[in-house]
# Entry
Amino acid sequence: MNDTPLTRNINPEKGPTDLIAYEANGGYQAVRQSIAKVDPKQVLNTIKESNLRGRGGAGFPTGMKWSFVPDASDSGHRYLVANADEMEPGTFKDRLLMEFDPHQLVEGMILSAYTISADTGYIFIRHEYHAAIKRLREAIQTAEDNNYLGKNIQGSEFSFKLHVHVSAGRYICGEETALLNSLEGKRAIPRAKPPFPQVSGLWGRPTIVNNVETLCNIPHILANGADWFKSLGLGDDAGTKLYGASGRVNKPGCWELPIGTTGREIIEQHAGGMINGYKLRGFLPGGASTDFLIDEHLDLPMDYDSIMKAGSRMGTGTMIILDDKTCPVGMVANLEKFFARESCGFCTPCREGLPWVKELLDAIEAGEGQPGDIETLQRQAQFIGAIGNTHCAHAPGAIEPLTSGLKYFRDDFEAHIKDKKCRYTQEPVQ
# Structure
C-alpha cells in the first residue's frame, strides 16, 4: 500500500504513465476485482465508509452524493461527468493528475459509473489543457482496446462509454449545473435546484458530477479498503489531498500530503519558504474564491472543518500567497476583475455588483479613493455575500477575498485613500 496513492505513478521527467506501467503498479486491479463481482450497493457502502469528501472545493461526502441517484428502474441513460474545467485561479492539481496519470481518472470513472449504473461518461475539460486532452483520449482508446471500456467490460454485462468534451472554458462551469447546461450546448447558467442533477441532470437524466481528484481516489479505496483510506488522514477527514502553493515562495508547486497537513508545513517545508527578502502577509487557502487567512492560522490543519472555523474555506487546497511587498488592494482588485468578467450575467447583484466593486477598488488603488469608499465596499460585500441574494454561489465566493481583505488589511485601504497613492513598489527585491 502507498501513502501517496494519487501521485505514485507521477514523475514529470518520465512523462505520462502508459497502460503497461499503470497495470504493473496495480492499475485496473479494482476494475477486475469489482465489475460484476461486487454488488454496486456494496461498492457504494465502501465509498460511504471511506469518508471521501469531494475534492473540488465543497467537500460534500461523495458516497452520500451518489446515494441520491434513484435506483435503476428504467432503461434510460445515466451519466457520469468529471469536472476538469479547473478555472479557479491558483489551482493546477487536476492538471497534474490528468497529464501524467490519465488511466487513473479513467479507472475511477469506470468504477464510479458501475456504482451508479451510468452507461455514458464525459470528461468536461477546459480547452487550454492541450496535453491533458491528448493523453486522456489516448488512455481512453487504449482502455477500450483492452476491454476496460466499451461493451461488456471484462466479460460482464456492464457497458460504459467515455468521452472527452473540450469546453470553451468558463469559470462558472465549476458549478455543476452550469457545466451540464454547457455540455448540452446551452449557455452556461446555473440551474435552479431542486431538482438536483442526481435526479434530473444531463438531458433530464440522473447524473453525477465529480471533481477529477475525487474520482481518482475511487480505485485506491476499492483496492485497499475504507479503513486504509481513513488511516491516511491526520484528523477527522480521510485520505490524502493534493495541496499547492503559488506566489513568492522558493518552490511553488503541488504535493500529495495527508489531509490535515498544516499550512506552515506546506509553505515552509514543501514550498521551500518565502523567497529571500519577502515575508508572508497572508494567504488564500483554497484558491482565489476563499477568504484570506494570516500567519496566526498557519498551524491550523488544512482540512475542511478547521479552515471553515477559522473563517475561510479549504476549497481546492491550493494556496495563493500574499507577501509583504505586494499591495493587498491591488491583489483584491485583480481578483474581483476576474470574477466580474466570469459572471454568467443571470442575476443583477452579480452582473452589476461585481463590476461596480472592481471599479471602486481600481479607483482606490489609483489614488482616487474617497472617504466612505471602504464602508461602501463593506455594504456591497455584505449584500452580495448573503446567501439567497444571488442565483448561485459565484458572487458570494467572489466577494470573500474582499471581505477578508478589508478585515485583515484595512490599514492598506485607508492609506490608499488618505495618501492618494499606493505605497507598495513594484520593483523586485534584490
